[in-house]
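Input set for joint prediction.
Command: fold jointly, output tokens.
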Amino acid sequence: MATTYDIAMKQSESKKEDSAQIVAVKELRKSFGSHIVLNGINLSVNRGETLAVLGRSGTGKSVLLRLIIGLEIPDSGSVCIHGQNIVGLALDQMGEIRKKMGFLFQHAALYDSLTVAENVAFPLAHHRRDMSRSERGDRVKQLLAEVGMEGDLNKMPSDISGGMQKRVGLARALALEPEILLLDEPTAGLDPISSAEIDDLILKLQRERQMASIVVTHDLHSARTIANRLALLDQGNVVIEGKYEDLQQSDIGLVKEFLKQS
Amino acid sequence: MDTAVDSAMGRVDGFFEWFGNLGIFFWRVLRAAVTPPFEWGELIRQLDEVGSKSFPLVFAAGAAIGVILSLEARYTLTRFGAKSMFPSSLVYSLLQVMGPVITGLMVSGRVGAGIGAELASMKVTEQIDAIEASAINPYRILAAPRIMACILMLPLLTLVADASGLLMGWFAQTLVEPLSFHQFIDSGFKTAHLNSFLPQTFKTTVYGLIIGLIACYEGMRTRGGAEGVGRAATKSVVLASLFLILSDVVMVKLILVVFP
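tokens >
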């Protein structure tokens, strides 16, 4: 029978676990009309950890990221960043939370009227007004050098390839030194060599910066390379969550099918 | 029968929903516009985009209207033996009615479509989401400068249309019956006073608000790829032009009451 001490120890461990969690999603639900996309998702990510969210197309993976950064509002449930529930926050309050996050969109979403350098400088120009123009310029060059784009400062997004746009998008996402990095299909549409380069880049950045990262992908190989844990979504639920070895040992038919087809 | 009633009620719902959402959008833009930090650089860029780049079009439209009014007015006034009223009739027609309305419609077409398409294109390519994800208020950086630029530039562009209309109206008249420009202006403005045209010129700030607000609203809520962009641009022009003219009905009456 559990003693008062046992209960207290369990609560203490749970609190420690909660405080280590940078991002925690609890009972998250989202529908678009009658189509249920997320049906009570529970996920968490700690500092220095990368969680890969896998699933077939249309299973709500991108919607999950958009809910975490507040671009969509859930029907119910909570999204906690450092223990603070961000659901329902006003735009300016949400702005303070978003400064701690970097988001790489599936198609990079670069501002097409700005050059590569101006794209990366954009968040710095708005949030780091203490920086001088030359300091900002140096920081932009440093960020672009980290992603291997230092030679393309003055090019327009339309002048560079999809893979290069993703690199620039990643540099822009890192501009404000985020604690949380959200990556939506970082290797989608890329050839195997470019995909491997993006994976290596993400791994390198993760080692150096120790961010809490969530990567949405349907690329199992990429997920195995960059993630500490994997979660498989299907029909709005997390079917399985754990290391790749846990997925391999699972008896769940969908998991076996997913591994077989990947 | 029930389906027809449901459909009609659905349209009424949609109509009020559109206005409600537009009101919320306007409030968010207003809040963003009056709280720092202010986007002066973007405002200046939009003043150039809306004002300087609309100048040739508005000048040409004003000139064409001046010629048309000159030809029509001369013919009509001659028929009724009131040829001497020609300069006054041209001045009043242009400054009180045609100048503001033509400017509003030209700017609605050029700027409304441009803003609607630009913002719609940014919306469908997730650029607006990227701005928001970077903790930057898209109402502050995208909508507010564009709407402010429209509000500030419309009166100035109206003066351009008025001036080009008067100049070309006089020129068209001079080709038929020589009249010095000095005589034309003197005669045209003899009975005019500031109340004759200042309220009409400044009412175009309301046109600017309508054009900027509707174009930004339609652009920033676009869905549906290239088709959505086209729809947003079209809706921006059509709705802005329609509300511009409807607002004129109210403002003309208001001006007549306040400035009799």
